[in-house]
Amino acid sequence: MAKLITLGEILIEFNALSLGPLRHVNYFEKHVAGSEANYCVAFIKQGNECGIIAKVGDDEFGYNAIEWLRGQGVDVSHMKIDSSAPTGIFFIQRHYPVPFKSESIYYRKGSAGSKLSPEDVDEEYVKSADLVHSSGITLAISSTAKEAVYKAFEIASNRSFDTNIRLKLWSAEEAKREILKLLSKFHLKFLITDTDDSKIILGESDPDKAAKAFSDYAEIIVMKLGPKGAIVYYDGKKYYSSGYQVPVEDVTGAGDALGGTFLSLYYKGFEIEKALDYAIVASTLNVMIRGDQENLPTTKDIETFLREMKK
Amino acid sequence: MAKLITLGEILIEFNALSLGPLRHVNYFEKHVAGSEANYCVAFIKQGNECGIIAKVGDDEFGYNAIEWLRGQGVDVSHMKIDSSAPTGIFFIQRHYPVPFKSESIYYRKGSAGSKLSPEDVDEEYVKSADLVHSSGITLAISSTAKEAVYKAFEIASNRSFDTNIRLKLWSAEEAKREILKLLSKFHLKFLITDTDDSKIILGESDPDKAAKAFSDYAEIIVMKLGPKGAIVYYDGKKYYSSGYQVPVEDVTGAGDALGGTFLSLYYKGFEIEKALDYAIVASTLNVMIRGDQENLPTTKDIETFLREMKK
Amino acid sequence: MAKLITLGEILIEFNALSLGPLRHVNYFEKHVAGSEANYCVAFIKQGNECGIIAKVGDDEFGYNAIEWLRGQGVDVSHMKIDSSAPTGIFFIQRHYPVPFKSESIYYRKGSAGSKLSPEDVDEEYVKSADLVHSSGITLAISSTAKEAVYKAFEIASNRSFDTNIRLKLWSAEEAKREILKLLSKFHLKFLITDTDDSKIILGESDPDKAAKAFSDYAEIIVMKLGPKGAIVYYDGKKYYSSGYQVPVEDVTGAGDALGGTFLSLYYKGFEIEKALDYAIVASTLNVMIRGDQENLPTTKDIETFLREMKK
Amino acid sequence: MAKLITLGEILIEFNALSLGPLRHVNYFEKHVAGSEANYCVAFIKQGNECGIIAKVGDDEFGYNAIEWLRGQGVDVSHMKIDSSAPTGIFFIQRHYPVPFKSESIYYRKGSAGSKLSPEDVDEEYVKSADLVHSSGITLAISSTAKEAVYKAFEIASNRSFDTNIRLKLWSAEEAKREILKLLSKFHLKFLITDTDDSKIILGESDPDKAAKAFSDYAEIIVMKLGPKGAIVYYDGKKYYSSGYQVPVEDVTGAGDALGGTFLSLYYKGFEIEKALDYAIVASTLNVMIRGDQENLPTTKDIETFLREMKK
Amino acid sequence: MAKLITLGEILIEFNALSLGPLRHVNYFEKHVAGSEANYCVAFIKQGNECGIIAKVGDDEFGYNAIEWLRGQGVDVSHMKIDSSAPTGIFFIQRHYPVPFKSESIYYRKGSAGSKLSPEDVDEEYVKSADLVHSSGITLAISSTAKEAVYKAFEIASNRSFDTNIRLKLWSAEEAKREILKLLSKFHLKFLITDTDDSKIILGESDPDKAAKAFSDYAEIIVMKLGPKGAIVYYDGKKYYSSGYQVPVEDVTGAGDALGGTFLSLYYKGFEIEKALDYAIVASTLNVMIRGDQENLPTTKDIETFLREMKK
Amino acid sequence: MAKLITLGEILIEFNALSLGPLRHVNYFEKHVAGSEANYCVAFIKQGNECGIIAKVGDDEFGYNAIEWLRGQGVDVSHMKIDSSAPTGIFFIQRHYPVPFKSESIYYRKGSAGSKLSPEDVDEEYVKSADLVHSSGITLAISSTAKEAVYKAFEIASNRSFDTNIRLKLWSAEEAKREILKLLSKFHLKFLITDTDDSKIILGESDPDKAAKAFSDYAEIIVMKLGPKGAIVYYDGKKYYSSGYQVPVEDVTGAGDALGGTFLSLYYKGFEIEKALDYAIVASTLNVMIRGDQENLPTTKDIETFLREMKK
To answer: Which family does it belong to (chains A, B, C, D, E, F) (predicted)?
Structure first.
C-alpha cells in the first residue's frame, strides 16, 4: 500500500442548489473540498493511504473538515487547528453565465488554511510518504504556505504537482513566475496540468508542445482536456483517453478526481494507459454531482462503469 | 373494457434524492412500486381495468400501498393484509457507478408480499380476467408465491409473463430453470423480456434468435432494448420501434411501463405496431422521473407526445 | 439610455418542482412572471430603462410583484393596485406529456391584471418612452386591456408587439382577427413572433413567407424558432442565429428573454445581427432554470457566455 | 356500518412551506382539502362509510382530488367532472400576522365546485345515507350549490350542518340570513358551530346562550372553542372536553376533523361524551401538520393517544 | 412622512436550515441582513421613508443586497459598490448549544461594508433626514466606518443609536470606550440597548439603574429584555411592555425589528407606550422565521395581531 | 483518558421529514444510529475514548456507518463487515399518534448486526477498556449477540448496561427473563433504566422502589424519567435532576445521550450529581433534532447551555 502526503488548504464548499446567478439562489449545500483533500480521498479510494498537512480554524467548519476527512480514511494526524483565523470557505455558482461551467467565490483571504507554514511540515512524516503532492493553489494562498511546499518537496523522494491556476488568487504573471520557479528547483515525478494553465505558464496551449516543454521538469505529465478527456505523456510516449457524455451537475473538483485516481492506480502497479482510462471515469462521475469527494469511485466501481458503459 | 389480473409483490420504494453512492445520499423519496403493480396502473391508464392479487404487511407501508393503488383505480379487493411480516421495501441508487442506470437495494426477504400463496388465488376472480400476468420476480420471491402463479396460470384463459430476472433474488441458474419450467407448462399469449434475460434463459442475446427460440412458448414476444426501444415478434413478423433521447432521472420501472401499456392497447384493439409505438412513449416518460407510476401516460397524453415530438 | 414602456399582466408563477402531471407534483416554487414584465427586466439588464403599466390585486401576490420588479430596477410608478380582484396566477407543468415543453394552467380570469383599461394609460408617461411594447396576451385578457393597448399605441412614437398567442385565453379565430386588426391600425417598429403564431395569423408557417407577409405591418421582424434559434428580417435582409444545446428546466419565458434582450441591444446601438446573437444567449440561459427573470443576463454575462461557448 | 353523504366543494390546497406573509414564501405544498371532503375522510377513519357529491374541473387538480379521495376510501361515484370551469384552489398563509392562526386565499370564484346544482343530487343515492351533511361554505359558493343542499336536505332522513362562515365568500349579513333560513326550514340532527359564527348568526357569542338559541333548530349541538376544546349540548345536557397543548403547524381543517370524527363515533354507538373526547384528539393531531386529512386518526390511534397522553 | 437615514454594513445571511452545530448542518438559506438595513425596512413598514448609507462588494451578494432593499422600498441611492473587497457574510447556528438562542459566524473582516468612510457621507443627504441612526456594530467594523458615523452624527439634527455590542467584533473594553466616547460627544434622541450591553458599557445590568445612567446621553431610552419584552424611559417616566410566547425559529434581528418599528411609530405620532406595544409585536413576529426582514409587519398587521392575540 | 467499549447493532435511521403516519410522509432523512453507537459518541464528546464491537453488511449502509463513526472519533477497528446479510435499518414516525413521542419501524431481522457473536469479541481488546457497555437491545437481536455480551462481560473489569427494552424485538416475558439472568450473573457498575422497563423487569414502576430492587445488581443506577429528567442512585443516596422545556423534534436516542454523557463525565472525575446535571443537557439537546448523534454536546457546550439557561 503506497502512501501519499498532500499539502494544501481544506475549504468548506457552499454549492448553489439551483442554477444561475447567486443573487437568485436561495439554498446552498455544504461539502468539504479543497484540491489537495480531493486528491487525498481519490488516492485512498483506490486502496492506498493518504495523509494531509493542513490547517483549519477552531470553528465548526474546521471540525467539519477533520471529521469528514477522518471518516473518509484520511490520516488527519497532521492537520492542525489554528485558532487565530477562520476556516476558509467558498461558494459555487453553477452553469451561469456559461453552461456546463462553475464559478468559485472565495472567502479564504487570511484563512487558517493560508497560515500553513514550514513549521507544520514534519520531516519524519514527509519522509514516510512514497509521494508528496501539492498544487498552484497552495503556492498562491500565502508565502508561508508556499514555503511549506518548498520544505516538503525538499524532503520528499517523489513529488507531484497540479498547476491548478486560480486567477482569483494571483495574477497570471505571478502564477507563471512562481510555478516555473518551483519546477526549476524540484524535478517532479508527476505534473498534472491543462491547456489553460500551460498557456499561462509556457505561453503554449497546444497539448503536445506544452507537454514537450514541461518534460524538462517532470517524468510523467497528465494534460487534462476537460470534457474531452486527457492525455498522458511519459517515456517519450503519449496516450489519449477520451471523456464520456454525462449530465453535468458541477465540474468543480473533476481535475482532482482525475489526478488523485491516476496517481493511486500508478502506485497500484497499473499500466499508465489503464490508469488514465480509469482516472477519466473518476472525473466523469465527479461532474455528475455537487460535492467534490462524494462520487469518487473505488477501483471496483470504475470497473463496473467501464463494463457497463462499454466505452 | 378488458380486465387484467396481476400477481406479485407490491413494494415501497425509497428513491435517492441525489445521485451517487447511497452512503452519501441524505434524503429519500417514497413511492409505491413493484413490477406487477406498475403493469396494473399502466394497463388502467389506457382505459382498461386491472386487479392485483398481493399481500402487504399490517403496517403504514402496507396501507400506503393499498390507498395509493386504490386511488390509481386498481381493484384492490384481492389484496390481503398479512400481519405476520412487514411490507417489502427497497432503495434506489441512481446513476452510480454507472450513469443512466439505477441499482435496487432490497429489504424484502420474508416480507408479507413473499407470503403470497395459492390460497390467495380466488378461482372465480381469476376467471373473470381477460388476461393474467406475472413475472420472474414473483417466481423468485418464495415457493408459495411461485405456486400462486402456477395456480393462477392454470385457471387463466390467457397468460402474460415478464421474465424480469433480478439476480439479487435468485441465481442465473435458478432463474433459467424456473422460467423454462413455467414456459414449458403454460403457453403464453404474451412474453415480455429483454436481451440480458434472454442470454440467461436461452444463452442467446441476439434479439431475433432469442425471439425465435421463445416463439415456441409464446404467441407475442416483446423484446425490450433499453434506451434503443423495443421489438415485437408475432405471426412470424417483427416490428422495431426506436426510443427517444430524454434526460434520465431513474430507469426503474421503464420496462413495466412499456409492457403494461402495450398489453392494454392490444386489448383496446390497437394494431400491434401502433401499440408498441405508444408503449415506447410510456417507457420514455417513465425514465424522466423518480417513481414508477406517476408518469404513466393516458392514451391521450401519448398522442400529444407523438404529435409534438414528431418522431 | 433608452426607455421602454410595456403594458400587460404581471402573474405569479407556481412552477412544479418535479416533472410530470401536476396531480403528482407535491411542491411548487413561486416566481414573478408575465410576458411584458419579462420583456421589461430583459430590457433593463442590457443597461436601458423600463416601466410597466399594469394592475395587481391588493394582496400578498400583488405586493410580491411590485417589490420584486422594483428590486429588478423596473419603474413601478404606473403599476396600480385594484382591490376588486385578485392578482392573476398560473401553474407550470414541466416536460409532460411532451419532454422539453411546459404547460401553463391559468387562474387569471377576472384578475386584477385583466382590469387594465385606457384610464390606466397616462399620456405623458407613454410619450416619455422611446418604445411601447405589448403582446397578444394583453389583447386576449379583456376588452379594456385591449383598449389600453390601443390607447398606448396611438400615443407611442415607436411600437413593438409580440404575437404570443395563448389558445387557453382565446380561440385561434379571435387571435387572428384581433391581431390583424391591431397590425392594420398601427405600423410597428418591431414584430416578434414564431411559426405557430404565423400559421394562426397568416395561415403560413414557413418563416420566410410569413415574414414577407408580416413586412407590410412591421419594420423589423423577429421570427423565433424555439431550440433552433431565431431569424430576424429587416431592410429586405435576413439573418439566422442558431440555438445552443443545454439542459432544459423550463422553456416558459424564453421568447420574452429573446425579445426583450434584442430590443434593448438594438437601442444600445448594436448591429441587428449581433443583437440577435446576444438575444439567443439570453433565451438559452432562460430555459436552464425555473422562473422567467432570474437568469436574464447582462450584456457582460452574454459576452462571457459567447467567449467560453465559442459558438 | 353507517353511511354519510356530504355535499360541498373539494379544493386543492397550497400550503406555505414557511411562515410569514406569502410574498416572502417561496415554496408551497399541495394537499386535497375542502370542508365536506375533510368530514368524509374523518368519518371513514372511524370505520364508517362516506360518499361525496361534488364537482371538480377536467384538469390535473380535479383528477388529483378524485384519486386522493378514492385512495382514502371515499365513495367518489357521485363526484362529477365539469369541463367548463377549473377546480377551485386556495393558498394558506401560516402564523402571520397572528401566531397560531392561518389565513386562506381563495381562487375558487366560478370554479367547477361552485357549479354543483340540484341535478347533481341523485335522490336514490341520498336516501341510502344515514346522515347527510353540508356547511355554510356550500351555501355561500353559488346559488345552485345552495339549492343542491336544499334538495339533499329535503330527501335526507337525518341532517348535519357545520356553519363554517367564511367572510371572504359572503358578508356576515348574507351568512346570517341564509343560515337562519336553512335552519328554519330543516330540523337538524347535528349542528356544528363555534362562537364566532354564533355571534354572526345569533348575535350571541356566549356558548351556552348560543347553544340554547340553536337548540330550536338542532338536536345535538357541537360548539367548537378552538384550542380550548369544545362543548356538546344535547338532551338539555352539556359536556365540555378540553384541548391539548401541542405545536401548531396549521389550524386549517381542525374543526372538520372534530366534526367528522364526532359524527362517525356517534354512529358507532359511542356515548356522546366519549365521542367528543375522541373527536378533540382528531382535531389536536390535525393542527400538528400541514394538510387537512393526512393526520386524521383511526379510533385505535385516538385510543393510543389518550392512553399515552393521560389527559 | 418622516425620513430616516441609517449607516451600517449590509450582510448576506446564511441561516442553518436545521438546528444544531453547523458541522452537521447541510443546507443554508440566504437572506439579506445587517442591523441598520433591518432598522430601515422596519421603519418603512410603518409608512415612513428610509435611506441607507452603506457599501457592498461588486459581486452577486452585493447586487443581491441592493435589489432586495430597493424592492423593500429602501432608498438605495447612497449605497456604493466597492470593487476592492467582497460583500460581508455570516452564518447562523440556531438553538445550539443554547435553545432559543442563535450564534453568528462572521466572514466580514476587510469586507466592502467595512470600507465605509466619511467620504461616503453626503452632507446634503444626511440633512434631509429627520433622524440619523447607527449602531455599535458600525463603530466596531473599522475606523473609517466609525468616522463616517461621527460625520453623519455631526450633521444630523436628531440621532438614534443602538448599542448592539458584538464581542466577536471588538473586546468589551473597546466597546465600552468607543460607545461612551460617542455618547459623550453627541446627545441622542434615541438610545436602544439591552441589559447585557448596559453591563458592558456602564457595569450595570439593572434596567432602571442603567437607564438612569444613560439618561445623561439620550432623551428616550429603549431597554430590550429579550423574550420578556422591553421598557422605554422618557421624561422621567417608565413603561414596560411584555413579550409574547411564540415558537422561536431564529432570534437574530429581533432587536432591530423592535427598534426600527418603535422609531417609525414615534414619528407617526404614536404615544410612546403604544409605539412600544406595537414594536414588541414586530419583534415577536421576527423570531418566528429565519430571515431578519421578511416578517416585519405593517401597522395594520400589528393591529390584527393585537386584536386577535388580546394581549 | 478513559476508554469505553460497547457491543451492539449499528443501524441506519430513516427519519420522517414531516410529522404524522408514515403512509403520508414522502421524504426521509438518513442518519447513523443504534443505542451503543450513540453511547460511544456521547462518551467521546466529553473527552474520553470509545470503541465499538459490531457488524455491518457489505453494503452502502454498512460503509456509511463505518465512515460516520470513524469521523466522529469512534475506534472502528473492531467493526466487522458481514457480507451474508444486510445492514439493519429503521424508520421513525414522529409525533403520531402520540405528540412528543416517536415510533420505530425496524427492518433488522436477520441483519448483519444481529450476526454479532462471541468470535467477534477480542479478549485483549475488551481488557483494554475501563468500562464495557451493552443493552437489552443486543440481548434481544439474536442468541449469538447475547452470547457476545456474556463473553465481553465475563472479561470486563467494569460493566454498564442499559435495559432499553424494545417490545418489537422480544416479549415482555423474554425481556424480563433475559435481563434478570444477565443481572444475576454479572454485577454492574452502572445500570441505566427507566420506569417502563422497571415495570417489566421488576413489576415495579415507582423509581425509588425499583432502584432499591436494582441495587442488588448494580453500584450506580440511573433512572430516566423522560421529559421530567432523571434520578441517580448510588451509595444509598439519591439525586434528582429535572429536565428542560424545549421544542421536541424527535426523542429517539435521548436516553443514550443521557447515559453516554453521564458515564463519560463520571470517568472524567465529575461528582455524580454534576455528571447527571450535565447529562440531562445532552439529552435535552438531543430531542431538538432528528438524528441521534449530531446534537451530542461537548462538555464546553453543556457549560454554555447551563450558564445561559440559568436552570
So the answer is: Belongs to the carbohydrate kinase PfkB family.
Q: How many CA atoms lie within 13 A of A200 on its CB side?
A: 21
A302 CB within 8 Å of a chain B CB: yes
Mean pLDDT, rounded, for B9-19: 98
Single-letter code of the amino acid located at C40 = C
Contact B249 C21 (CB under 8 A): no
Cell of F304: 454554555
Strands C159-162 and E79-82: unpaired
CA–CA dist C260, C38 (Å, integer): 7
Q: What is the pTM of this model?
A: 0.97
CA distance D296 to chain B (A): 14
Q: Rounded distance, CA F179 to CA F184, Å?
A: 9
Any chains having at least 3 CB pairs less than 8 A from chain B are A, C, D, F
The residue of D285, D300, D306 whose CB has the most chain F CBs within 10 angstroms, and thus the best one to mutate to test that interface, is D285
**Contact criterion met (CB < 8 Å) for F295 and E101:** no
Is residue B309 within 8 angstroms of chain C, CB to CB?
Answer: yes
CB of F23 within 8 Å of a chain B CB? The answer is yes
Which positions of F are annotated as active-site residues?
Answer: 256
State which residue of chain B sits closest to A308, comparing Cα positions.
B98
Q: Find the DSSP H helices in chain C.
A: 35-45, 60-71, 123-127, 136-141, 143-155, 172-185, 195-202, 207-214, 254-267, 272-286, 299-309
Among B234, B311, B248, B237, smallest CA distance to B280 is for B311
A72 touching chain F per CB within 8 A: yes
Spatial distance between the Cα atoms of A48 and A40, rounded to a whole number of angstroms: 10
What is the SS3 assignment for A122? Answer: coil
pLDDT in the model for residue E106: 98
% of chain B with per-residue pLDDT over 70: 100
Q: pLDDT digits over E147-182, tens only? A: 999 999 999 999 999 999 999 999 999 999 999 999
- Per-residue confidence at C22, pLDDT binned at 50, 70, 90? very high
Q: Hey, are the CB atoms on A70 and F71 less than 8 Å from each other? A: yes
Which residue of chain C is at minimal alpha-carbon distance from D68?
C23
B97: cis peptide before it, omega within 30°?
yes
Nearest chain B CA: its distance from D204 CA (Å): 44
Please report the ipTM that was assigned to this predicted complex: 0.96
Encode pLDDT of C37-68 as tens digits. 999 999 999 999 999 999 999 999 999 999 99
Nearest Cα residue to F222 out of F166, F176, F297, F282: F282
Place of cell 408580416: C214
CB of E14 closer than 8 Å to CB of E29: yes
CB contact under 8 A, F98 and D297: no
- List the catalytic residue out of A162, A194, A256, A292: A256
Segment A200-223 mean pLDDT = 97
CA distance F74 to F66: 9
Asked if residue A311 has pLDDT above 70, the reply is: no
Chain F residues closer than 8 Å to A79 by CB: none
Quick check: A68 and F71 CB within 8 A? yes
Residue B4 CA, chain-centre distance (Å), reads 13
C87 vs chain D: nearest CA distance in angstroms? 10
Which residues, in sequence order, are CB contacts of A178 under 8 Å at separation 6+? A136, A139, A140, A146, A170
Domains and CATH numbers, chain F: 3-308 (3.40.1190.20)
- Cα F306 vs. chain centroid, distance in angstroms? 23
Distance of CA C24 to the CA centre of its chain: 29
Q: At E13, which amino acid appears?
A: E
pLDDT tens-place string over residues A122-179: 999 999 999 999 999 999 999 999 999 999 999 999 999 999 999 999 999 999 999 9
